[in-house]
Amino acid sequence: QAKADGRNVYRFYHDELNKASIDKFNLLQLMRKALKNNEFQLYYQPKLQLSDQRVIGAEALLRWPQADGSMISPDEFIPLAESSGLIVEIGQWVLQQACLACSRWQQQGYDLTIAVNLSTVQFRDGKLEQQVQQALTAAALPAHSLEMELTESLLIGEGDNIAQQLSALHQLGIRISIDDFGTGYSNLGYLRRFNASRLKIDKSFILSLCLSERDEPLVRAIIQMSKSLGLKTVAEGIEDSATAAQLALLGCDEGQGFYWAKPLPETDFLGYVSAELMNEARTTKPD
Ligand code: C2E
Ligand code: MG
Ligand code: MG
Ligand code: MG
């Protein structure tokens, strides 16, 4: 009896493992196909200047729509794209599309910047600078309109190779942000080493800023430190007006979050931006 049970347990794990690796294989095949068929989309989340809540740009976020109308979240497919190396091609597509979109907005008269998320895997073949240059040229977008977000935890243990490439990008005029700050080692040396000019506080500290007494001193300290290093501070995950007001009071420069808007398809993003501008014009019009 015990023997039979043991075998069943074994078979169960065996089947589950098999299923997991087949799923990964399928997912990778599906991602390749999606890239080839242009199925990926970029959504844009407004970024605002906290002092006056003016829209200053957007973060481009990758979306993978499914046939049934659902969406696979980037948190579910980016890790496999990174471990398989496919992120290099996906990332290039993201860069190209994001630069083109931002250039369209600027041509329509909107003074906006675009931030793109980068994986450290994209630095491995040493061709990133060239790809960035190409994307900027093809879109006729000035380098200073492009911002690159690199997750703190991905930079841990990364060496001179990435630092050198980031330095070259920085020389071009591209802005570099350390994303999800506070979740890794929060090593201050990273900020200098990777030429960062912006520090993005992770949303896990912002979501509960007005609820948890533990978060306020931490966020305050990050903003103070960032300021004394001459960096701009950005907060992600702002979901209500109280948090926006609190962050502005603490001296945080920029923010994004569901309070203003979720990541939106380009048309909706532009709708949001033009409505905000109209609002602004109304409230600042002299009587
Ligand atoms: P991230 O770069 O830290 O992006 C911010 C995430 O926070 C986004 O999740 C956004 O939808 C979410 N967010 C923004 N405001 C709020 C808010 O007020 N409340 C809450 N609860 N969430 C908010 P998303 O779009 O699911 O992306 C997840 C992560 O996937 C990103 O985190 C980024 O690390 C990665 N990612 C997305 N697009 C790309 C891409 O093109 N390339 C790479 N390498 N990674 C990407
Ligand atoms: Mg980001
Ligand atoms: Mg982040
Ligand atoms: Mg993140």
UniProtKB/TrEMBL annotation:
Domain EAL: 24-277
Signal peptide: none
Superkingdom as given in the UniProt entry: Bacteria
Name of the protein described by the UniProt record: Diguanylate cyclase (GGDEF) domain-containing protein
Gene source species: Arsukibacterium tuosuense
Lineage of the species this protein comes from: Bacteria, Pseudomonadati, Pseudomonadota, Gammaproteobacteria, Chromatiales
Residues of the full protein shown: 351 to 637 of 637
